[in-house]
Amino acid sequence: MKILSLFDWISCWYEALLRAWIPIDAYYASEIDKYAIQIAKKNHPDIIEVWDVTQIKWEDYKDIDIIMWWSPCQWFSFAWKQLAFDDPRSKLFFEFVRILREIKPKYFLLENVKMKKEFQNVISNELRTEPIEIDSSLLSAQVRKRLYWTNIPGVTQPEDKWILLKDILETDVDLNIHVVWNQYNHRIFTDKSWTLWTCMWRTNKQWMWIYLWSVCPENFVRKLTPVECERLQTLQDNYTEWISNVQRYKTIWNWRTVDVIAFILQHIK
Question: For the segment 120-169, what is each residue's pLDDT rounded down to a tens digit?
């Protein structure tokens, strides 16, 4: 099958296709971030980079079978300002709509965060389908609820694999206390099933979901390692090892949970 991946990032769509046993005849990747491209090419040298999504012309991709896309999601998120389509990055969603209508692939898949119903309805009306909500905790050790719009038939909820946080840690950490506090002394998560505890922490002027807070008798607090973050996203270990740790955290947490994407793609007959 021929794939067009828009906002390809680190080509985890490719990883999901492989896990879903979907043959890849050609994989076109639209991405402009140099670190993301470096990781993608290291892992999958055969991908074809097509750069800026706004420059894609349908005449060059008439025989595409699947278009996959995730657009910048922070400005839809409840954790941000919810500027939604008033933000230039979120407006890029309409580039996806343009490309989808021009190319008319057999299948499409769009992922984004949970958002206000009014924003969700705009996307649903444009794509003429309602999203399915899937929590990554069913297939990984993190709570990550996302919306997936697709015309792939028969997609439901995956079976819970009961993967726990202790299953993906590189070292033994005492996680017996179940209340986590953030830098403002607000309780942000209470969990009794060993899933992921995270909070948003300001680093280098970027918000990244990279901190594990474990309230232990010694008040021990540590950051997740890059490999642990990869495991939370169901990537193989050291998928992002060729760049700095700062960039590794950014590229990992700006991506999706690979096994969730693979689960959806498995419904293609």
Answer: 898 999 999 999 999 998 998 888 889 999 999 999 999 999 887 778 87
**Spatial contact of 265 and 20, defined as CB atoms under 8 Å apart:** yes
Residue ranges matching CATH 3.40.50.150 in the chain: 2-160+257-265
Q: What is the pLDDT of residue 111?
A: 92
Compute CA 145 distance to the chain's CA centroid, rounded to the nearest angstrom: 10
pLDDT value of residue 137: 87
The yes-or-no verdict on residue 207 having pLDDT over 50 is no
The domain over range 2-160+257-265 is classified in CATH as 3.90.470.20? no
User: What is the β-pairing status of strands 107-113 and 66-70?
Assistant: parallel
| pTM for the structure as a whole | 0.81
Rg of the Cα trace of the chain?
19
